[in-house]
Design goal:
Elements (H helix, E strand, L loop, with lengths): L3 E9 L3 E4 H18 L1 H6 L10 H8 L3 E4 L3 H4 L18 H17 L8 E5 L10 H9 L4 E5 L5 H15 L4 E9 L17 E10 L8 E10 L5 E2 L21 E2 L1 H23 L6 E6 L4 H12 L12 H4 L6 H8 L9 E8 L3 E9 L1
Parallel strand pairs: 4-5, 4-6, 11-12
Antiparallel strand pairs: 1-7, 1-8, 2-3, 6-7, 8-13, 9-10, 12-13
Helix pairs in contact: 5-6, 8-9
This protein binds coenzyme A.
The site of coenzyme A has 20 residues, from helix 3 and helix 8.
Length: 372
């Protein structure tokens, strides 16, 4: 069995940004338009009027201040309210592959590797741009990587589940080096016309290079242990899928985008994640006092504050549990990897940290790492 290390990470950040204020102005204009268009039905009581959103609510409920997106104009057009990403010919790179390759190239540069050194590409994300061929295979080809590639989807936990999958293959010896790529175009499956969730997501891509922990001279992170768990829940759900046409559901339906019962998610996921981390640490022989850093899933600041306190047994010091959600919003599987990528260089040899993601499924994945 081989030991495994993370030797590089990369983050692609879209150039367009939407602040809470900008988002709320667009949403409220959309709500006014909707209410005017449905005035008679609203008076008759057959359609509910859309209430306004509020930037103060968004920040207080989530900690989010802004998000990055691939397209701003479509989202902020009150008559449209979703991004405009023009269709591309089949022989041009897809959107997920394009942003995934950018993140992957940054991760390879950080690891001091060439794409040809890689023999596994996993594209792990909460949605795939098409049914087939796998986006991972397209990324492999665009990068110039060898070996093989595949896609996997465990929603917000896709990155940590991908890291465990790659780690296990490197450990067993079937591959030497892998790159786990998380292109998250959440703006395309978020319902921007629903004030309960319109502020939640942003777009980004992350990538993580993993390889055998042999003769590594540059700073890296040893993968000490990984753990994944799932428990079925309908509280975060998206009904879009390949059977849609067979169901005669090609109309503009609410359930074909992200839906959640946010309160239930909040209540049910917190104990699940806290217990998962506690069990993982206990089995790995890690005490709370051993942990120098927690890189958590980036959905909600209050959730992270709760988990950080539960895991460490005290309120985390500044920087011990870095959040990036104020800048990026929830970027699904990529969130904990952005936090890790942007807040890990200062750790010294021997320092231990824990990456943890959680979300739809429900799913929770944790990775214990040690600076080497
Ligand atoms: N602006 C103003 N008011 C809003 C609003 C908005 N954009 N969205 C909702 N409200 C209102 C609600 O209608 C509700 O009003 P009511 O009390 O009169 O019924 C009130 O604010 C509280 O709404 P609620 O949905 O209960 O808010 P919350 O405190 O639970 O926060 C979330 C909402 C989504 C931020 C929070 O539940 C959450 O983060 N949950 C977990 C999310 C998560 O991790 N998801 C994983 C996704 S992968």
């Amino acid at each position: 069995m081989h030991n495994v290390a993370i030797t590089g990470t990369g983050v692609f950040t879209p150039k367009h940004r939407i602040t809470n204020d900008e988002l709320v102005v667009a949403f409220n204009a959309h709500a006014d338009l909707f209410n005017a268009q449905h005035a008679d039905a609203i008076v008759a009581g057959t359609v509910d009027a859309k209430p306004h959103s509020s930037a103060d609510f968004i920040f207080a409920a989530s900690g989010i201040e802004q998000r990055y997106v691939l397209d701003r104009d479509g989202i902020l057009d009150p008559a449209r309210m979703y991004p405009h990403l023009p269709a591309r010919p089949d022989d041009a790179p897809g959107y997920m592959a394009e942003i995934g390759v950018d993140a992957a190239q940054k991760a390879l540069a950080a690891a001091g590797l060439h794409a040809s050194d890689i023999d596994l590409v996993i594209c792990a994300a909460s949605n795939m741009e098409r049914a087939y061929p796998a986006v991972g295979v397209e990324i492999q080809q665009l990068l110039g990587a060898g070996g093989f590639a595949f896609d996997m989807n465990v929603a917000c936990s896709s990155a940590t589940f991908g890291i465990q999958t790659a780690t296990d293959m490197i450990r067993a010896g079937s591959i030497r080096r892998a790159i786990v790529v998380n292109p998250e175009i959440c703006s395309a499956h978020l319902e921007w016309r629903d004030r309960d969730c319109h502020f939640i997501f942003g777009d980004v891509a992350t990538a993580t290079v993993l390889e055998r922990d042999e003769d590594l001279t540059a700073p890296h992170f040893k993968v000490k242990s990984t753990r994944c768990a799932t428990q079925f829940s309908n509280n975060i759900r998206n009904n879009n899928g390949f059977l849609r046409r067979t169901h005669n559901q090609m109309d503009d339906r609410r359930d074909m985008q992200f839906m959640q019962n946010g309160r239930r998610v909040f209540k049910e996921v917190l104990p699940l994640v806290s217990q998962h981390i506690a069990d993982h640490m206990a089995d790995a022989g890690i005490q709370a006092s051993d942990l120098k850093r927690l890189w958590l899933h980036q959905a909600n600041k209050t959730m992270n504050d709760y988990i950080g306190k539960k895991v460490l047994g005290r309120v985390p010091d500044a920087g011990e549990q870095p959040n990036i959600l104020q800048d990026y919003a929830n970027t699904s599987s990529a969130g904990s990897i952005i936090a890790f990528s942007q807040n890990s260089d200062d750790l010294v040899v021997g320092d231990t940290g824990l990456i943890c993601s959680f979300g739809a499924g429900y799913s929770v994945g944790s990775v214990i790492v040690e600076r080497g």
